[in-house]
Amino acid sequence: MVIDSPANPEVRAEPSAPARRRHPLVRYALRRLGLTAILAVGITVVSFLLTTVVPINAAAANLGDRAASDPAVVAAYEARYGLDRPPVIQYFIYLKNLLHGDLGMSQQTHRPVVEDLGAYAPATLELVMAAVLFVVVVGVALGTWAALRRNRFPDQLARIIAMLGVSTPIFWLGLVASFVFFAKLGWLPSGGRLDSTFIAPPKITGFLTIDSLLAGDLPAFISAASHLVLPSVVLGVYTLGLIIRFTRTSVLEVLGQDYVRAAEAKGLSGTETTFRYILRAAAGPIITVTGVAFGTLLAGTVLIETVFNWPGLGQYAYHAATAGDLSAIMGVSLFVSLSYILINLVVDLLYMALDPRVRLT
């Protein structure tokens, strides 16, 4: 190996092999994962502080009045969850229990909250994903159509639909939709996840539509899908208006770009130009608002699940709130908060992957 020497400036050392640099998407994902971990810890802090501020006797709420009247039982419960320790120690015990999947016992079901979340969360996630699919397909189509036909009838129609979507109360719309499409027309079922004549398929994912397909039960799939239509559409109406507006604005901004005019000048068809250039360039804001909407829909299913008798987290949280079931309330809050963080992580990664203009340092 040649040694670099000040006495011989012409003799230089061989350069070392360049250090391997991670792909920008990998570096960004690692940073976002770190931020996600910090946010998750912050959520646990807020959750713990709420449990200490709410004026509810945790022992009485979880043990019941009869057990709470026994000092020995109360002392054992407080020692089990560290309620007899200083607040700082209580938080670390609370965090340790969370890491072990212990969210406490639900007062209303007398089961671990983790089991309740596993039982009710799939129904809510299936409903929310169906609503997101509806608003993305219909909203992007109407928003793009309105932008390509600016100030014409399609544009005016899309504006009317968007205005009605963001201004109509969903609980009222749910009642009207159930009355019209179930009571009057008989086209769609109004409540539950499956007709009473069907037996639920074996639980694999918790999504009745997927589980029925995995079980090869097509009639059960059709029934489960039909039960999804009304609640998912009503749940997504408000978000539909937002998606239409954001899509229209984003597409209008892209239409004036040079690369779009160049694509049209090359003789590409309108459909090819729209999908290859316009929608891809406009996808960033659409993906962002869709991710935010997913979290909003997940947290706002209480009214829809009540109106349509949907056995999901919304109803579970409502009954927990009316019964003062603190463990269940905090379990639902943690689930929704962590889901929202993960969704935003996925949205950020998709934003970078789909938009080549994004540059990360």
From TrEMBL:
Major localization listed first in the record, in broad terms: membrane
CDD domains for the chain: TM_PBP2 (cd06261)
Keyword Transport part of the UniProt annotation: yes
Superkingdom of the source species: Bacteria
Topology with respect to the bilayer: Multi-pass membrane protein
Family: Belongs to the binding-protein-dependent transport system permease family.
Keywords assigned: Cell membrane, Membrane, Transmembrane, Transmembrane helix, Transport
Taxon lineage: Bacteria, Bacillati, Actinomycetota, Actinomycetes, Mycobacteriales
Name the record gives this protein: Peptide/nickel transport system permease protein
InterPro entries: BPD_transp_1_N, MetI-like, MetI-like_sf
Domain annotation ABC transmembrane type-1: ranges: 121-351
Pfam family, one: BPD_transp_1_N
Transmembrane segments: 29-50, 127-148, 160-183, 220-244, 286-308, 328-354
Location in or out of the cell: Cell membrane
